[in-house]
Structures are given as C-alpha cells and as structure tokens.
Amino acid sequence: MGLDGARSHHERTAATPRSPMPHPRPPAGVPFDLATWAAAPRPEAAPGVFRQGHRQLDPDRAEAAKVPTWPLLLRAGLNAVVGWLAYLYGTQLLMYLLVWFGRQTGIGPLAEPSEVGAMLTLLIANLAVLAVVIKVFGRMGRWVEVWRRYAVPLLSRTVTEEVPATEEEQTEAARQRDPWTVLRQGGAAAAAGRLDGEAVGDVDYVRIQRAWESAQADPAFLPAFVEQVSLRGAAAFAHPSETRELPGRAERHDLLLGQVRLGTAQDVPKNPLTHRAAGFALDPAVLGTSLLAVGPAGTGKTARLARPVAEALCLQALAGTACAVVIGSADADLGPDAWYDVVIAPGDAASRYGLDLYGAAQDPDEAAARLAEALLPDELTARAETARTALQQMVGPFHAAFGRYPGVRELRALLAGEPEALEALVKGLRAAGRLGSFERDLEHRERQRGRADDPGALLADRLALLDRPAFEGAFATDGTGRPPFAMRVLDHPLRVRVKLPERSHPEAARMLSRLLVGQFVQAAGARQDRSLFAGLVVDDASAALDSGIVRGVQRLRGANAGVLLLLRSLVDLPEALRAPLFGAVGCRAAFPGIAPWDGRLFSEAWGTHLVRETAVTLAPDTSGGIVRRAGRLGRKALSGTTAQTESVTTREVERLRWSPSDLAHALPAGHAVVSLTAVSGEQVPPLLVDLRG
Any keyword Signal (predicted)? Predict the structure, then answer.
C-alpha cells in the first residue's frame, strides 16, 4: 500500500485539523487568558495526540465521515423517496392481506367488520411497514449519519441559544474559569487573592501549582507557601535565574501536560483512526523512552524537531518540572543563548563556562573509564579495555595525591611518561601517605612506557587534540580556568547548551560529544532525586554513540530521563551498533530522503500488519450456447476486443507498514514518519506527520 493520496491531500488535511488549535501565547500587547487556558478540555488520548482542545473521534463516525456531503445527502434523499413509495404501497398491500386473512380465518380485528377493527388494522399495517422501511432504507441511506452530522449540531446550537444556563450551571462555569479554586479551597485564599491581580503566564501557573502540590504533601509547608505567594505574587518560587518566559518562544505548548505540538497527523489510511487529523505532540511520557530521528541535512530534523523539543524542555525547566541539556555545533539553530542558564563553547574565548571532563564523578575509576571511551576513535575501540586501565592507573593516584582530577596537560604528561610529571606524582603520594596503595599501578605504567602497544602513548596523542591554545581554561580542574559544568547537577532545573567546535576542531568535537552523552547517561541513571525529567537533545549523534551508551539509553526509561538523537544516516554508525540502537530507543522518526538501507531498518522495526487486498482476475468469456458464442465472435470481429469475465477476490494479507521504498522515495517534504512508545509501554504505530506547523 502506498501513501494513499497523502501527496495530493496533505495540504487540505493539514489545513483542516480535527479541532482548532489556538496558539497558547497571544500576540504582543494582548494579555494571556489564563482562565481559558487552564479550563480548556484535555481529554485522555493515545500517546502523540496534542490533548489541549482535542475532541475524541468515534471510529464508526470517522468511517462514515469519509463520504462527502453531497453524495451522502443525495443518497439519503433518494432512499427517502423510494422509502416513501414503499411505505404507501406496502401499507395498502399489508392491509389487503390482513383483511383477507381475518375474513378467511375469523382471526383478527376484521373477523367482524367494524369501524374499530378497520382503524386497528390500519394502525398495525402502518407501524409494521414504517418499521421495515426505516430499517432497510435508513441503513442504505445512512440517515443516522445525516442526523448526527447536520441535525444534531443545529439543534444543539439552537438549544444553547434559547435555553439560559441555570444558576448552578453558571456557578460551575465560574468555578471552572477560576484557575485558583484549589488554592481557595485548600486554605490559601490570601495567596489566591494576590494572584488574581497579577499577570500570570502558563509557566508561572505550572510552577506555582507544582509548589502547591509540594505544600499539600506536608501541611507544615502551607504557611510558607502563602507567605511566598503573598510576597512575590506570580514570581513566587521562580527559577533560580529569575526568568519566567523564553524570549522568541514560537511553538505551541501545553505545560500542564508537558506537551509541545509539532504538527498534524495526516488523514490517510496508513495512520490509525485515533490520530488522523489530530495534533501531533511529544511529552516526557514519550521522550522517556528516547527518540531516534534519521534524515539527510535540510529535511527539518533540527528546525522542526530538535529546536521545538529544546524549547519545550527549557520551558519545563522554568516551570520546575525538567532539566535540559542541548548539544550541537556552534551554528546549529537550537535556540538563542538567552534560553539557557549555562552556555559552554569550547574553543570560544568569550565562553563564560568550562567543562568538567570527569563529570564530577566521585569514583576516579569510573571517571577515567568514561573519559577513556570518549577519547578513543571508533576504529580503535578494540583497545578500549587496555586504554581504560592505563587511564585509571594515572587518574586514581593523581586524585589521591592532590585531591582533584588532573587537567588535560597534566594527564597528557603523565600518560606520555614525562619524568618531571611522574616525579611530582610520586612526591604527592608520599606526602599524602598513599604511595603504597598505588605503587603497583605506577610500576605497571613504567613497564608499559616505550612499548609499541603502549595505550598511554595513544591516549596522550588523543589528549593533544584538547590541549590546544583555543581550549585554554576550558577544561581546568585547579580552579584557574572558567567555572566548569559537571553533569552531576541533573537534579536541578538547569538549562545547558553545549556548542561544539565542529568547524575548527572536528575531532575534538567528536570526543566531547561522546564524553557528554556518556556522562549524561551515567548521571541521569544515578540520580537520587528523579522528580525532574532529564532531557538530552543531540543535534548530530553520529560521534556520540558506542555500545556502552546504547545500553545506558535503554536504562533511562526507569530514571525519568530520555534522549533525542539526530542522525543524518545510520551508515555513520558501526554496523554492529545499528540494530542495538533501534532496540534501545522506544520512538523512531524517518525524514524524507533517507537511504533505502536506512529505510530497511525502520521497515523491519515497524513490522507488518493485516490489510484487505482485492484482486481482479479477467478471463475470456466461454459461457452460453451457440447464439451467445456467435454474438461474441461478431463483437470481436467488429471491435477487435474479446469478451471477458471479471472475478473479484478479497482477502487479508500481511504487508509492511512502511516499505523501504516508501520511506526513501515517497515521503512529502516537511513530513516525517514517527512511531512512539510511552514509558507505560503503550505503543503507537508509525504515523505520517506534517511537521510544517
């Protein structure tokens, strides 16, 4: 099955969504209607549906709604005319039969002719024929659908206009339009009164509601809550940066549910009925299983997926429900610097923050292991174990001697075996009384030095890529450089942007990308407080993935964390890593123009489904006697065509949900095919989504 008209109808379906989706932020100068936004209906829906203002779709009515208006009304009218004629003649015929039967058998109301018997017979005949006519012609003419589609809305509008609301209904409506009802009923009327006179945005509302829920958990916090709100109003419990809104905010968000609306699921047969023409959205419940997006450059992965998700995570951080780490090249459009609390730009002398290469890990062996895996290129991963051991033999003793981790230049000197660096390390261990604990490690490193397979020399060469004048002060550990950011702070609502120097130092950027993603996976899984959703966005993850990270991504589902990984092609990854990566993530997105071999992995991951297939077989007509055969011969002589019989066979067969050819060649521009899995395990089959707003 192809796209079933997606190309010819995607403009119409995108322009006519199932329900209007007003932008959550009014134009500049227009106040935000908090009461209307907070009271907007948010019905339960399948993952991926933007629930604010969403209307549930009845599958039976959805199938019926496929019939255009005029054919539906014409069929209903024709069936009404034929039904009326059938009713007239059927009533007369049935009355005649009843009269004949009553007089012949003496049974029935006309056994003794009378006026009462005639009226009763007429009533029975009318009711019986009317019931049959409505049953038969009403079904063929779809009268019920006509009633639902046209009569019910008209009557509902008329009743609403003519019948005034009762006092109880007016009171309930007023209660629903008061966003601070819960505070008034919970004993915080003073706080609610202060907020009534404030300009409260959706970020403020969600943040204050979250603080209120925390106060409700322990009644002792209630006075502090009231005091804070009474003092600061809508700025109460603000983000540490005191920021309450993102500049240049552009996407549609529903912060009550943590959703960001990315586009519209198309009204095509390939999409399930629950999602057709509905708004498409992502939220922490879906991102918690992680999302892999594959597509060539220029297909909208960054602008239509990564940037909106980064914007959503930053807004949720301001509301106190998430923390965000966004990694990409310096020129990637992942939002302005004003969106973030910490902007790290190794290679940029104007950058205010540096990077902790060890992630502030408490265990030196753990920190050294992650750094070793990040330093090695893909083609040298076979030497990862020896490299990890060599780095641990230097990092552990240095930490024991000086109480900190070595800087890039210090570590490079130790791995290269420079006598002055080793002598200073031994002296520091002796002064700390720890020389005996690490003497064997130092001796082993001394024996390895100078050998052809010395992993220390390899690591020293790789560290040289970070020991450049452009990175001066970016990775300092002795307090002399820029304040270092450590991934250990994921239990705070922090917004972090890392700008990698992909143009000036591409290999260093690859190492830092792998290091940061590995640190995030470790830190997110090791958090004690998992109340905040920890989200990571990686604009180009081709250099950031290895087998350890892929295993760690799968464990994030239970840690209230998730990653968004963008790839230009799966060919950028080692072949042994592609299938495990598909198994580790719960959500997958294919963008237009992907290679057929990439499409094959998506197609296999999405599997098959049953479709109804109709086969038409044509065969020469050989039926009939001499006259019919002579007629067919004459027709063939005159027209040159042979009479044929047509045989139609319908059966259910298994077909790929999306074939590699469809994914590679048939996706419209600005669209993507996305499958989703929620943290709860609920799955959504691949959806064709228009991501153009």
Answer: no
